[in-house]
Every structure is written in C-alpha cells, then in structure tokens.
Amino acid sequence: MKRLLILGGGxxxxxxANRLVKELESDDWKITVVDESDTHIYQPxxxxxxxxxYDKKDVIKPRRRFLPTDSELILAQIDHIEPxxxxxxxxxxxxxxxxxxxxxTGSRIVPEETPGLAxxxxxxxxxxxxxxxxxxxxxxxxxxxEGGRLLMHVTEMPIKCPVAPLEFLFLADWYFHEAGIxxxxxxxxxxxxxxxxxxxxxxxxxxxLLEEKDIHVEPEFNVxxxxxxxxxxxxxxxxxxxxxxxxxxxxNMGSEMxxxxxxxxxxxxxxxxKHTLKxxxxxxxxxLGDATNLPSSKAGSVAHFQVDGFIENFLRAIRQQALLPSFxxxxxxxxxxxxxxxxxxxxxxxxxPLPGRFPLPGFGPFALLQESRANHWGxxxxxxxYWHLLLRGxxxxxxxxxxxxxxxx
Amino acid sequence: MTTLQDVSxxxxxxxxxxxxWNPEIAEALAEEEGLAPLNERHWAVxxxxxxxxxxxxxxxxxxxxxxxxxVNTKELYALFPKGPAKKVARVAGLGKPKGCI
Lengths: 409, 101
Description:
The structure holds 2 protein chains of 2 kinds.
Chain A: E1 2-7, H1 11-23, E2 29-35, E3 39-41, H2 56-59, E4 60-62, E5 72-75, E6 78-82, E7 87-90, E8 95-97, E9 100-103, E10 108-109, E11 126-127, H3 132-143, E12 148-154, H4 164-178, E13 185-190, H5 200-212, E14 215-218, E15 223-227, E16 232-235, E17 240-242, E18 245-249, E19 252-253, H6 256-260, E20 285-287, H7 300-318, E21 331-338, E22 341-347, E23 356-360, E24 364-368, H8 373-390
Parallel strand pairs in A: 1-2, 1-9, 2-5, 9-20, 11-18, 12-13, 12-18, 13-14
Antiparallel strand pairs in A: 3-4, 6-7, 7-8, 10-19, 15-16, 16-17, 21-22, 23-24
Chain B: H1 23-32, H2 40-56, H3 62-68, H4 73-79, H5 84-91
C-alpha cells in the first residue's frame, strides 16, 4: 500500500484529493490530508464581508465535508518535512511516511514583517481583509466610520489575489456612495507597482476606471514602516502618506513549516518547476496553489487550472514516465467594480489580459476587461460553483489552457 | 570610458544579452542613471545579483538581494535611489525584473 500525503486541505489540496481519489486504486493507495483546522474558508468571499454582503456563515464550512470519504484527514500542525527520508513530522511528535507528497499549504499574511503595522492600532485604525477576523473587524469599523482618508495599501508583491485591492476600492466607492458620505472619503491606492496592475493593457484599463471613480493612485511606494500614532506610512525613499484608515495587504509568505524544512525561498515559497509543478529538487514532491514560487497569480482559479494538467502528470510520475509541460500559468479572475458590475480578466505566463468575450468567443456571456452586469453575477455565482463543483473536482465550463479565441489583440 | 554605442539595449534601456555585460558597461549604465562613480557597496549588490542570476537564471527580487547580499533595504534605496529593483537590474546588465501577476 502506497501513501499519498497532501499537506493543506484548502482549495488546491481539496481539489487534488477529490480528483486523485478517482484515479488511484483504493487497494494500492492511501490518501491522507493534513490540515491544522477543520474550517474551510471560501477566501474569495472575504472581500465582501467588510461591506456586509457576506457574513461569517457564508464563507465557512467544515473541511471534512469536501474531502473524499475514502481519504483520511489528520487535524494537526505540521512541524517539518524531511524529504531525504520521505517523512513528515507533526508538532505532536507523530511522523507520517509518504511515497508521494503534495504541498498545498498556501500563502498567508505576515503583518509583523512591517514595523508599526501589527501593534496597538492593528484592527483599530489599521486593518486587513485577508483573514476572517480581519474582514469582520473591518466591517465593524466601516459601519460607524465618518469619513476621511482611506488608503488601500499593498506592501510587497507577490500577494494572493492581486486584483483584490482594486476590488476593495471599487466596492468601497459604492459603499460610501450608498452611505451618503462619499464626498467625505478620499480613496487612494498605494502600491509598489508602477500602476494599478502589473500587465500594461489591464493596468491602463483599470487605471482609467479608478480615475473615473475618483480613486487616486500612489505608485512605486515601497513601505519601510508605519507610524501608527501619527497615522502615516513611510517609504524607503522617505515619502510619507497620511491616513485616517489604513487597509493593508501585509507581506504574503508561505507556511513557516516550509522554512523549517529548509525548502523555501526568502518568502517561504517552494521553488517549483514552472510547467510541471514538481518541486525543483525532489522527484516525489509536487507543489500546487499559492505555496509555489511561480510567477503566476496566487488565486483559486490558478489552482484549478493547475490541477487539470497535474492529474495526468501525477499518473505519469507514478508510472516513471516523463512529465508534460501542461501548466501555462492560466488565471481567470472576476473583478468586482461596484454598482452591481464587474470585469473579467483571462491571462497566463505569456499572454496579458486582453479585451474580448469569454468563454464563448464573440458571445460571452462574460465581457473581458470591460464592465458588465453579467460579470458581477458571474462572481456571485462563483461561490456556489466553488463549494459544489470546483472543490469536488467536477468539470467547470472553462478549459484549463488559455485560448486566444475571442480575445482582441 | 566605455560608451554604450556597441551595447544592444531594449526599448526601456535594459541589456538585450546579459552575457555581453562587463564592469565597464556597468559604469556607463550607472552614469546614465546618475549613480556614477560606483562604489564598493554598489558593487557588493551588483556582484551578488550577477552571481545569483548565473545560478538561477532570474533577476533576484529586492527581498532576496537584501537577505543575501549583506546590504539592507534602507542602504539599497540610498545606493540606487527611487526604484532600486529596476536600477540594479539595469546596471547589472539583466532584463527588467518581472512583476509578479
């Protein structure tokens, strides 16, 4: 009996377990998932919590319910991986041997990396929405906030869901309009990037949308520290920006377990082969989802496209066959733009987001890189698809490899 | 003094072929960036970046540079003011750093 060990039962880990359980003979393989908690958070939903659209109950479900019944779930903290002896050590002293290992431990925010952030004003005048606690605290803050200067601040790239800060601003613009205080709120995006987004066409398009909504941008701002008492953020080149309310995306890092295992880069992400998802230095370890160091977006849609090609490659690996370069960096993101509308972008390692129609060329129903109501409904519908189709490894009506059909160059 | 006449640069001024780089070209590029003359600390950064590129094939991120070259972020900004990521890559003859997506 061989053992496949999956570290992390989030979006990527759950999808992989559900897909592989159908492919591997249960007489030959035991699939074990290790996670520290039994709560699965629908992370794309966290964005909507500060504005009261979703509540806690809308974004959490028991992890176990989404894992295959034939698999084993161990709820424990992982201490480290010992790749040379094919063994994973848990914090409680137990160890688990494996034949193949899949690392899906994701990415997390580390506010402690920036001086002044995680101190007395944390979750008072300095907030995040990348954790459930953070999103709930920000909701409470916004409820009786009377206006002032709100900074949506990105500390350092890469971050999980790189469009979320823009969506936050679009939704905040709408929210403050509805509350009748938009004229008393200054909204500013502070980013280390040269513009609203990394890719030229999308950056231009999204930049124009920000301007239309009277949202300012402070580009190329690399924060050194926050002064929580004077309410200022200070950059390495000594620029300062004042705020009344700081909403920040702190530094994103992989699991500390990766660092304890000596397997991470400087952000604790695992060096991974770009097209096969195999760990660079180990032939029986694969890395999926946000835990990789790949230059693809850290997002659930990316994990989904990874899994499609990965299944075939995993089966090739256990048959000692050469791996195929199946992953092209494909990402597909709905961007909420407020007032019941949204945008959709579709891109990969080589092709930047372009305008067009998706997924059916010329028809849609979704419009690429432009606002529409259908895109907004697509995003809300996605929560249902996430729990019922995506996690369970069922077919989604979207191909894994990016298609140029329907895109306008 | 080397001129940049014989060096192929892309539209943004980054060297097309990192293997064609040499220290004289670095000085000439630094001159254009207003960084010349390069001192020992500039060279600590450039040497690290060249070495790392040789090993990984990628331009290292700022975080990687500050974690491994012995030059901290504050100093890096003093040495290569306003946008050290781009300036370091350009002077070291590497391509424009890829923004993450």
